[in-house]
Design a protein that fits this description.
The complex is a heterodimer.
Chain A: E1 31-47, E2 54-60, E3 66-72, H1 76-81, H2 86-90, E4 95-103, E5 110-118, E6 123-125
Parallel strand pairs in A: 3-5
Antiparallel strand pairs in A: 1-2, 1-4, 2-3, 4-5, 5-6
Chain B: H1 4-20, H2 23-26, E1 48-51, E2 62-64, E3 67-69, H3 81-85, H4 102-110, H5 112-115, E4 134-138, E5 141-148, E6 151-158, E7 175-181, E8 184-190, E9 210-217, E10 221-229, E11 238-239, E12 243-248
Classes of the chains: A mainly beta, B alpha+beta.
Chain lengths: ~130, ~280
């Protein structure tokens, strides 16, 4: 409950938190607000780490080749405050659909996680616009 | 709140029980002198877990069925109970630097994303780490525990009158010694390294940094004040805005590893405003 992460999300709604008591870089400095993507795959791993949790999403192409995406998300304290755990994020192993923002530096298969929707329709919105 | 009528009436008996070692058995240590819990030495017991908001009071999660919205949920979300009971975030406050170092501060601030130590998961230092998230106190010693995004940290604060040690290495959280002024715990910390910032935007300090914190509790709140002294670079001591933490039953947890993977992908130094 007490991890110190200062930020002001209200204005932009899409700012990440990194560091303690005021340290902060913006999501916009890393991800392109104009390059939204939607991908479908299965979650292979959750990195429950700070300052950002990462979700690893295995995404097959039409030939069956699998690319693992890294989806960057919020700090653990914010997810914990919302009652979310790594197990809840991972779900039941079924397909999920992810809305995200692509990396500005051109790194492939890296995105900022906006929303993750599970097969039964329930979702977690972790970034806004 | 102090209850002076009750307090004066109970104090002599409490002291006698304390001398005889009967205080805890009779519960007097929890009642003597005021309605504050107190230890056998008569000082307020600051022990407990204290929710200072952790900088995420602005997060207003909304849940509908199994779905949860954490960010970008719209303005309708009600504040969480803890946030509603706590004072609003303090107004931003910054140290005032001597003119000869102003350019260095400005340069570091401009390159914050590249230079700020805590963005690389380093210890935040004092006072940047803020009020303790949990306090464990016994007679002659207070232990501060922190659950920070950079990790778990602790500070041991002797209150038995011993001086600062002379044989310890400068460190991120420094060397703390405490004493009591009335019901306030006053903690003086020195022997810092120069690897931390006082706050964001380039607020560096020297190894001569000295921080004085004052902590005072009511039954349900803990007030934390801090004053920063570093005459080599600061134009005047910096007095931070007071922070009020609320007692909570929600325990702190083992901090997950702090491993930054973002900074190598940053294409500019953009960052957002700091409410502190």
């Amino acid at each position: 409950m007490a991890v110190k992460v200062f930020a002001s999300l209200a204005a932009v709604g899409l700012l990440a938190i990194a560091g303690s008591a005021g340290a902060h870089h913006s999501v916009a400095g890393q991800f392109d607000m104009a390059k939204r993507t939607t991908i479908t795959g299965t979650i292979s791993k959750i990195d429950w780490i700070n300052p950002h949790v990462y979700i690893h999403l295995d995404v097959p192409d039409e030939q069956g080749n699998v690319t693992t995406w890294r989806l960057e998300s919020l700090p653990t304290a914010m997810l914990r405050k919302a009652g979310l755990t790594s197990a809840m994020l991972k779900g039941d192993g079924g397909k999920v659909t992810v809305d995200g923002l692509l990396a500005r530096d051109g790194t492939e298969s890296l995105a900022w996680l906006l929303k993750i929707t599970y097969e039964d329709g329930h979702f977690y919105q972790l970034g806004g616009e | 709140m102090r209850s002076t009528t009750k307090g004066f009436g109970l104090a002599p008996a409490a002291i006698l029980c304390s001398v005889l070692g009967l205080g805890p058995a009779l519960g007097w240590a929890q009642q003597s002198g005021s309605d504050l819990p107190r230890l056998a030495d008569g000082h307020p017991d600051l022990s407990g877990t204290w929710d200072n908001g952790s900088g995420i009071d602005f997060v207003r999660p909304q849940q509908v069925g199994e779905s949860v919205c954490v960010v970008g949920c719209g303005p309708s979300a009600a504040p969480p109970p803890q946030a509603a009971n706590r004072a609003p975030p303090p107004r931003p406050s910054r140290p005032e630097y001597r003119p000869e170092v102003a350019a260095r501060v400005a340069d570091l601030a401009a390159r914050q994303v590249a230079e700020d130590p805590v963005l690389r998961c380093m210890a935040p230092g004092v006072p940047r780490i803020g009020p303790p998230d949990k306090i464990v106190q016994r007679v002659g010693e207070v232990v501060f525990l922190y659950d920070d995004v950079s990790g778990n940290f602790f500070r041991i604060v002797p209150t038995d009158g011993r001086p600062h040690p002379t044989d310890t290495e400068p460190s991120y959280l420094g060397d703390a010694v405490g004493h009591w002024e009335g019901d306030s715990l006053v903690v003086e910390t020195r022997n810092f390294n120069a690897e931390t910032w006082l706050t964001d935007d380039g607020a560096f300090h020297t190894q001569d940094l000295r921080v004085v914190e004052r902590l005072r509790r009511t039954a349900e709140t803990l007030e934390w004040n801090a004053t920063v002294h570093d005459a080599a670079v600061l134009a005047a001591p910096w007095e931070l805005a007071p922070r009020i933490a609320q007692r909570t039953e929600l325990e702190i947890v083992e901090a997950p590893p702090c491993i930054d993977r973002s900074l190598d992908h940053m294409v500019d130094d953009s960052h957002h405003t700091n409410p502190r």
